[in-house]
Amino acid sequence: MRLPRFFGKKRGERRTGSQRWGSFGEAAFHGALVCAGVAFATLLASGVAVPEWRINHDFQPTRCRVRGTGLVRRTVEDPPGSFSTTWRPTVLVRYEAEGRQFESWSHSRGPASFGRATAAARLPSWPIGSEVPGWYDPSDPEMIVLERGYNWWMWLLALLLPGALLGFGMTGLVRTARRWGRSEEAIAASTGLVDLLDPSRRPPAGAGVMPGVPACDDLVNSPGTVLRYRLPIESADTWTLFGLGLFAVLWNAVLAVLAVGAGLDLAGGRIDWLLIALLIPFAAIGCTGIVLFVRQLFLAAAVGTTQIEISDHPLRPGGRYDVLLAQSGAGTMHDLGLSLELEEQATFHQGTDTRTESLVVVQRPVRAWGLLQLDPTSRFEERMTVEIPVDTMHSFVTEHNAVRWRFVVRGKPSRWPAFVRVFPIIVHPRDTARQTSAAEPAPIGTVA
Amino acid sequence: MTSESFDRSRPTLRIDAQFDRLDRIYAPGAPLTARYWIAGIGQEQVRSIERSVDWYTEGKGEEDLGVHFFERIPPPSPTDAVVEGTVTTTLPASPLSYEGVIVKVRWCLRVRVFFTSGRDFVSEHVFAVGDLPPARPAAPATRIAPPVPVIRGEPT
Description:
heterodimer; A: 448 residues; alpha+beta; 4 domains; 5-stranded antiparallel sheet; 7 helices; elongated; B: 156 residues; mainly beta; Immunoglobulin-like; 6-stranded mixed sheet
C-alpha cells in the first residue's frame, strides 16, 4: 500500500519525494484564512455596512418633535465574570410617517460612551419641545434616527481584520497555486506574472549578464576629489548613533508623558505612588540613553571623517587600482590601517529567529601608519595602489547568502576608543579570456 | 510507502550524465553540452521530464537557487527502456563555483522525472564554473609593520 509522502528526502546527489501533500496543507491553511476573512467581512457587511447604507439611502426624511430624552445602557460580560457598561443618548420623538403619527425612541448611532456623564452631556443637543430633522425606515416606520452619515473610523477598524485575513490568505493561495505540481527549478525559472500572462516575453536563458553579482550603481554616483569615485561608508558606528538617538528620543517622550501625568496629579493634590516609583527608574534609563547618545555623537565628531577614493569601479580580480585614503580630525592617531577584505555572509532560520553569520576569508593589509599627527586644518591623505587577488571569488549576493568585498579602515586615536569603518566595493568575475582549457573535451556518446 | 527503498517490486530508477569535459570544469561563458540517460522507469507512467542547468548555494545559510537553463519536455514512449537526451547551453559569466567556509556556490545539471502518481525523481550532476581554490578563514588581522612615527603623508 502506498502512503502519501509528507516530506522530501535528500540522499547524496539524489532527492526523492512529492510536494503535493505539503502544498495541499499550505493551501488548506490559507483557504481557512480566506474563509475566516469572508465570514468576518459578511458579519461586517450585515452588521455595519448594510444598516448604515440603508439609513443613508432608504430612510425617508421627516420632522420630529422632541418629547423626552434618556440614555440607553448596555452591559456585557466579557470576559466571563467581568462586566462593562456603555451608554448612548436616545430621544423620544413624535413624527409623521406614511400618513400616520408615530412616537418612538430614536435609534442611537455614533460611538458609545463608557461614562454615563459623557453620554448625558450630549442630550442638550435635543431640547425638549424643539423640532429636529429625522429619518424613518419606510419598511418599519417606528424605526427613526436623528443622525445620518458614515462612521469612517469604525469602518477602518472593522475592515482591518477581514482585510488582513483576506490579503494574507489570498496571497498564500496564489503562491500555492503558482507552485502546485511544479519543481523548484520551474518556480525559480518563471518570471512571475509576466510568465503567467505572456510566456513569449519570458527572458531567454542567460539574459542576466552576471547573475548573482550585485549592481554597483550606488557606488559610482559620487565623484572623488582626486580619484574618479568616492566610496560610500558603511559604518556600524553610524547605525549605533542612529539607534541610540532614536532610543533616547522615544524613551524620553514616554517619560515626559508619564511625568506630565504625575505632575497633574500632584497639582490636583493627589499622589500616585506607583507612578512615581515607576518614574524614577524610567528617568534613570532616559538619562543614560541621552548620555550614551551624546557620547557617541561626540566620538563620531572627535575622531574625524574617513574617506576612500578609487580610480575605477567595479573592480576585477588581478586588476590594480589607485586608492586614496583621507582621514580628517585632530590629535594623534596611534594606529591607522587600511585592509582589503572578503567576507562571507549567511542568513538562516534558527527556530523562529532569522540569524546572519559573517566570516572574513580574505584579509590583506594594504598599508598601516603609526603615531600619525592629524592637523585639523588639512586632512591626512595617502595614495596607494591596490591589487585585487586573482584567484578569489567575485562579489556575490543572493537572498540568503553573500560574498562581499570591502576596504576596511581601522584606527586607534590616542585619546578615543578604536574605530572600524567599512567601504564596500564590487568585484566582478575576471575576464573570461583566461579559460580553463587544460582539460580536453570528452567524446559524447558513452556513459562516463 | 512510496519510497523506493520500501517498494521492492519497483525497478530502481537511474539517471546518468556525461559532460563534454572530463574534468567537468568550465570557464565562465563557455558552451556546455551534457548528455543524460534515464533507465529503470519500469511500468510507472512518466508525466513529464524537466532538465535544467542551475546554480545553488550551500553552507550555513538558507539555500538560494538560480536557474540558467530550463526545459520541460513531453514524456517518452512507454516502450522506451532507456530515455536519453542532450542539454546544450552557453554558461553565463557568473556566479563562479565557490568553495567557501560558510557560503558555497555549486553548479549542476538536474534531470527531474515526474510520474503520473504525483511522485517525482530528481538527479543532480555537479560541475564547476571557474577554477577558484577553496577559501579558508582569514587569520586574525595583523599589521604590516609595527607603528613608527611618521610625518604627515609619509607611510611607514
